[in-house]
C-alpha cells in the first residue's frame, strides 16, 4: 500500500485540505496533528506556524479558531514560498476532506496528546477513519497501545526502532494482535525477518522520505533507481511505503504487476 506523506502537497500546502483531497485515491493519507489551546486537534507538523504560514504562534498556546484562520504557504512552505488560499484545517475537517474510502495515518506530534486525540475522535465518531501511532519498546508500551484501542475504538500502530528492540518485539506485537507497525531499520536483512515474523497478521510500514529514511533508501534515490529503493522494500515484504512521490511509486508498482 502507498501512504502519502502529509497528503499530495506541492503546489498545495502540506497537511492542507487541498493536499488531503488530492490524495484520496491512495491507500493511506499520513497527516500530523496537535492539540490547540482550547482542546481541538488541528493538522500541523511543526511546533509553530513559522515555516507553513509565516506566523510565530504555537498551536498549544492558541485557540483553534485563530489557527484555522491562518493561510498556508505553498508546498513545504518556508520564507520563499507564496501564500495560498488554503487555511490550516482541524483534524475533523481533514478527515472529511478525502474520499469516503480514505484511511488516515494520524501522527500525533506530542505523545502526551495521544489519548486526548483518541478521545476527540471517539466523541466525533471518526475513530474508524484512521490509526494512531505510539512509540513502543516494552511489553508495557504494547499494553498502553492496546488500552487505547479498547477504550476508544481507534486502530493503533506501533512505532518500532528495530536496532533498539530486536525482532522479539515484532513477535510480541504480532502475538498481541496489533494491526500494524511502522519500522525503522538499519539492516535490510533484519527488516525481511520482521516481515516474515509479522506474516499476514501485522502490516509492516516504513518510509522513503528524503528527510527521514533508512539505509539510504530515499525518494530522491528512487527517482533514478527505483529497484534499489522501492524494489528492495517490496522484496523484503513491507506492506506500506510512505513517500512524498506517491504517483511515481504507483507507476513503479504497476510496472511490477
Automatic annotation (TrEMBL):
One of its GO terms (biological process) is lipid metabolic process. It holds the Pfam family DUF4996. Residues 1-257 form the GP-PDE domain. PROSITE patterns: GP_PDE (PS51704). Gene3D superfamilies: Phosphatidylinositol (PI) phosphodiesterase. It comes from the Bacteria. One of its GO terms (molecular function) is phosphoric diester hydrolase activity. Signal peptide: none annotated. This is Glycerophosphodiester phosphodiesterase family protein. It comes from Parasedimentitalea psychrophila.
Amino acid at each position: 500500500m502507498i501512504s502519502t506523506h502529509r497528503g499530495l502537497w506541492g503546489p498545495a500546502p502540506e497537511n492542507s485540505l487541498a493536499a488531503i483531497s488530492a490524495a484520496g485515491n491512495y491507500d493511506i493519507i499520513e497527516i500530523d496533528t496537535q492539540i490547540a489551546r482550547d482542546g481541538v486537534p488541528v493538522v500541523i507538523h511543526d511546533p509553530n506556524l513559522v515555516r507553513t504560514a509565516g506566523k510565530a504562534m504555537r498551536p498549544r498556546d492558541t485557540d483553534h479558531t485563530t489557527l484555522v484562520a491562518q493561510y498556508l504557504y505553498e508546498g513545504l512552505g518556508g520564507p520563499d514560498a507564496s501564500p495560498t488560499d488554503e487555511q490550516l484545517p482541524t483534524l475533523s475537517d481533514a478527515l472529511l476532506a478525502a474520499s469516503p474510502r480514505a484511511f488516515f495515518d494520524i501522527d500525533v506530534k506530542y505523545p502526551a496528546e495521544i489519548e486526548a486525540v483518541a478521545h476527540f475522535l471517539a466523541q466525533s465518531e471518526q475513530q474508524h477513519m484512521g490509526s494512531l501511532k505510539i512509540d513502543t519498546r516494552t511489553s508495557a508500551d504494547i499494553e498502553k497501545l492496546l488500552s487505547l484501542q479498547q477504550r476508544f475504538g481507534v486502530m493503533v500502530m506501533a512505532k518500532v526502532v528495530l536496532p533498539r528492540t530486536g525482532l522479539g518485539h515484532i513477535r510480541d506485537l504480532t502475538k498481541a494482535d496489533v494491526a500494524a507497525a511502522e519500522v525503522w531499520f538499519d539492516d535490510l536483512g533484519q527488516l525481511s525477518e520482521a516481515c516474515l515474523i509479522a506474516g499476514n497478521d501485522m502490516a509492516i510500514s516504513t518510509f522513503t522520505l528524503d528527510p527521514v529514511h533508512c539505509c539510504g533508501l530515499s525518494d530522491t534515490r528512487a527517482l533514478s533507481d527505483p529497484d534499489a529503493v522501492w524494489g528492495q522494500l517490496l522484496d523484503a515484504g513491507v506492506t506500506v511505503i510512505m513517500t512524498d512521490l506517491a504517483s511515481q511509486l504507483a507507476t513503479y508498482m504497476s510496472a511490477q504487476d
